[in-house]
UniProtKB/TrEMBL annotation:
Catalytic activity: D-serine = pyruvate + NH4(+)
GO molecular function: D-serine ammonia-lyase activity; hydro-lyase activity; pyridoxal phosphate binding
NCBIfam families: D_Ser_am_lyase, PRK02991.1
GO biological process: D-serine catabolic process; isoleucine biosynthetic process
Protein encoded by which gene: dsdA
Enzyme class: lyase
Residue intervals of the Tryptophan synthase beta chain-like PALP domain: 99-394
The protein, known as: Probable D-serine dehydratase
EC number: 4.3.1.18
InterPro entries registered for this protein in UniProt: D_Ser_am_lyase, Ser/Thr_Dehydratase, TrpB-like_PALP, TrpB-like_PALP_sf
Organism listed in the record: Butyricicoccus porcorum
PANTHER family in UniProt: D-SERINE DEHYDRATASE, THREONINE DEHYDRATASE, MITOCHONDRIAL-RELATED
Length: 448
């Protein structure tokens, strides 16, 4: 503990972080892409490989989930302008966004209704392909749609997929695995929402609940899975497959920007704000975007004031060797997708020289942004997803970010920027829960 103490007393940001205040942190270790890729274990060809695998599975996904038909069985979300929200942020929070503000609606991704539909589903498909090849389940050249035939589907029943989750990862892994035919066990922490457990059980998923926190659920899940040779454990903290599934977003976003005739180059920089939990989703997306847009994209993570694990790991240089509890924070937040006390070591290592910065947001603001988004755009996002909105507000109000813009010769280019709020979840939240959230938001607004 003592060495953390000296580190923290030396840093104003860390001291504020410890007090649970909102902070903005600019990464002093960020390097140009070329340098940050040196020694990196993953690269664009790994992402291309993941992309090709998703193409191979597209006919099967389309057969099981007809809502993916318009996109030919690919799971991808819309990118939309949110001009009314932009005006609202400028008016209510003193933000001055002169460029274009867009919303990336991973909240509305098919199947899982959250960003986890990228990494989680990809990982299960990768494992499935490994099994298919090992057991010669398909003839060479045969369509993966055949895996939906009853005799082939029955094969997967002998295999188990397990995962530990606070909610959304469990939903994504649980739904896709159950539909493909696997036996699925999802280990959930006590704070996981009841409706998520109910929804999983409706798919026949074995949901186990733990009194303790997320790490206990993960520990138990891993132990049970390791004891069974036919069981596969999805490891949220260390999985390269999850990460690559998220990274596929990079090239796809480029295509969407091209279709909207939005240019990204040195004179037209791109800013992206992504909510962060353990780091896999925002880290993978950032990695994918960096491969496509290089130094013209500036990525920022947003975390709850009580669970800023990635910011803490990066700012202290201790990565996963420090937890938010070590500095006296609770790790508790209404943003259940972000309630993580310790970052992924693997992701922290890659983000160290790639991430532009991070900021934290108080829970109460998540509800305000949620209501703003509903009032101005009629779009529902879950509280976790609204953390991304705070990134856009901070970038255009805080003095720390001002310095980032100056240091990177961006000030005069701000009118040409595209800023993307990466909305990570909300699509599957039942109406009654949405109503509860909205009531909380309305009360907060009345009190202020
Ligand atoms: C999981 C999740 C995140 C963050 O992803 P990590 O991989 O845990 O960093 C953000 N928002 C939502 C809604 C999520 O479910």
């Amino acid at each position: 503990m003592e060495n953390f103490e000296t580190l923290i007393s030396d840093s104003r940001v860390l001291e504020s972080l410890r007090q649970g205040q909102e902070v903005v942190w600019i990464n002093p270790d960020k390097r140009c892409l070329e340098q940050s890729m040196q020694g990196c274990e993953l690269n664009q060809s790994d992402i291309d490989d993941a992309e090709q695998r998703l193409f191979r599975f597209a006919p099967l996904i389309q057969a099981y989930f007809p809502e993916t038909q318009p996109q030919g069985g690919l799971i991808e979300s819309p990118l939309v302008a949110i001009d009314a929200m932009q005006a609202c942020l400028n008016r209510k929070y003193g933000s001055v966004q002169t460029g274009k503000l867009l919303l990336k609606k991973d909240s509305h991704l098919a199947i899982a209704g959250s960003v986890k539909a990228r990494g989680g589903i990809y990982e299960v498909l990768k494992h499935t392909e490994d099994l298919v090849l090992r057991h010669h389940l398909l003839e060479p050249g045969e369509s993966y749609a055949k895996l939906g035939d009853p005799d082939k589907k029955a094969f997967f029943r002998a295999y188990t997929i397990q995962v530990g989750s606070t909610g959304n990862l469990g939903l994504s892994i649980g739904i896709i695995s159950a539909v493909l035919g696997y036996h699925v066990v999802v280990h959930m922490s006590a704070d996981a929402k009841q409706w998520k457990k109910d929804l999983l059980r409706s798919y026949g998923v074995d949901v186990r609940e733990y009194e303790g926190d997320y790490s206990e659920a993960v520990r138990n899940g891993r132990m049970l899975s390791d004891a069974d040779p036919k069981s596969y454990f999805v490891d949220d903290e260390n999985s390269r497959n999850l990460f690559l599934g998220y990274a596929v977003a990079g090239k796809r976003l480029k295509q969407q920007l091209d279709e909207m005739e939005i240019v990204v180059d040195q004179d037209h920089p791109l800013f992206v704000y992504i909510p962060c939990g353990v780091g896999g989703a925002p880290g993978g997306i950032t990695f994918g975007l960096k491969q496509v847009f290089g130094d013209d994209v500036h990525c920022f993570f947003v975390e709850p004031t009580q669970a800023p694990c990635m910011l803490l790991g990066l700012a202290t240089g201790l990565n996963n060797k420090i937890s938010v509890q070590d500095i006296g924070l609770s790790g508790e937040t209404q943003a259940d997708g972000l309630a993580v006390g310790r970052p992924s070591a693997f992701v922290g290592g890659i983000m160290k020289t790639m991430l532009s910065g991070a900021c934290t947001v108080a829970d109460e603001k998540l509800y305000r942004y949620m209501k703003d988004m509903m009032d101005t755009e009629g779009i529902f996002l879950e509280p976790s997803a609204c953390a991304a909105v705070h990134g856009a507000v901070c970038m255009n109000t805080e003095s720390e970010t001002r310095r980032y813009l100056e240091d990177n010769q961006l000030v005069s280019r701000m009118a040409n920027t595209t800023q993307i709020v990466w909305a990570t979840g909300g699509g599957l939240v039942p109406q009654t829960i949405r109503d509860d959230y909205m009531r909380t938001a309305a009360e907060l607004e009345k009190d202020s």
